[in-house]
Amino acid sequence: MSTVDTVNGPVALEAIGRTLTHEHIFTKNPEIEEGWPDPEWEGEDAMVAKAVDTLDELKTLGIETIIDLTVPGLGRSIPRIQRVAAATAVNIVVATGYYTFNALPTFFQTHGPGLMVDMDDPMPAMFIRDLTTGIGDTGVKAVMIKVATDEPGLTPGVERVMGAAATAHLETGATITTHTHAREFRGRDQQEFFRSRGVPLEHVLIGHSGDSTDLDYLRELMDNGSTLGMDRFGMVSMRSDSERVDTVVRLVELGYAEKLTLSHDAGVFSINTPPSFRRRESPDWNHAHISRDILPQLRERGVSDADIDQMMITNAARILVGAR
Questions:
Q1: In the structure, what pLDDT confidence band is assigned to residue 118 with cuts at 50, 70 and 90?
Q2: Would you list which residues are annotated within the binding site for Zn(2+)?
Q3: CA 35 → CA 38, 82, 272, distances in Å?
Q4: Pick from 154, 205, 242, 276: most CB atoms within 10 A?
Q5: 72 vs 1, which has greater pLDDT?
Q6: What is the pTM of this model?
Q7: Ordered structural domains, the chain, with CATH
Q8: What tens digit of pLDDT does each residue of 31-43 get?
Q9: Which residues sit in the known binding site?
Q10: Are the CB atoms for 159 and 194 separated by under 8 Å?
C-alpha cells in the first residue's frame, strides 16, 4: 500500500510523516445540542477556524498527520472535518466504528438477526462501506476501525461492535484501534476477543495504555503482538505526565519502541469535556503538548530521535497501512 486515504484524498505513505495517532477535532452530540446548545460552542465558522489554527500550529511543530478517531457515538461529522482539512496543510485521517461503553442505540437493538427487523447485522456492512466506498456521500474513506471497552467490560453492545470490527478487519485489512480502561486491564479482554475472531493482534492497537504504569501488563500486550497507544499526554486526571513519560522511557529502554505510538486524545472542542473543564483540570491537554513539552522530556531521559521517529513516523505508518 503506497498511499493513505486522508480527508483530502490519497497521500503517499512516505509523506504521512510525524503522526498523532489518537486525536479528536470535534466531539459533539447533535441530538442534545440541537435542543440545548452548548454555550462553549462558538459557532460553526469560528470553531472551524479554531481547528485550522490548531492544526496549522502543529504543522510548524513538525506534525504532518493526525488520526481523528471521532466515530459515530461521538458526533462524527465528515462535512465539518472536510472544511477543516480544506484549509490546513496537516493530513487528517478518519475512522469508522462505534463508540459505546455499554448499550447501543435503539436502531441496532431492533435491526439484526432475530430482532424486530430480522436481518443480517447491519453494522459490519456499515464499517466496510466507510472503509471501501466512503462515509455517506462525502467520498471520504475511513482508514481505521475504532472500538471501546471501558469499565463495564464486554457488554453485549460492546461485543457486537467488536464483532463487527473483526469482520470489517478481515474483509479490508484495516487496523482496529481501541479505547480501554487500563485499571481493569481491558486490553487483555480485547486481545482475547479479537484472537478468538481470527484477527492477528499485530493489527490491533490497544489505546490509552499510557494510563497504566504496570510494565508487566503492557509488555504482555506487546509480546502478544499489539502496538500500544501512549495517547493521553496532558490528561492528568487519568495519569500524570511524569508517570506517562517514565513509562515510555522504561519501555523504550526495554526495546519496545517498535510497539509504541504517541498522542493526546485531545480535542479542539468536546461537549463531554468542554474547554472550560479542560483549562481547569488539565491545562496542558492539547494537540501541541507532545511536540512542545513531552518530546524534550523524552530526549532528556535518553530517548533518541531515532526512537521518536520510530514511534511517531514508522509505527504510525504501519498502523495506517494495516494488513492492506
A1: very high
A2: 22, 24, 146, 179, 208, 265
A3: 10, 25, 16
A4: 205
A5: 72
A6: 0.98
A7: 3-321 (3.20.20.140)
A8: 999 999 999 999 9
A9: 22, 24, 146, 179, 208, 265
A10: no
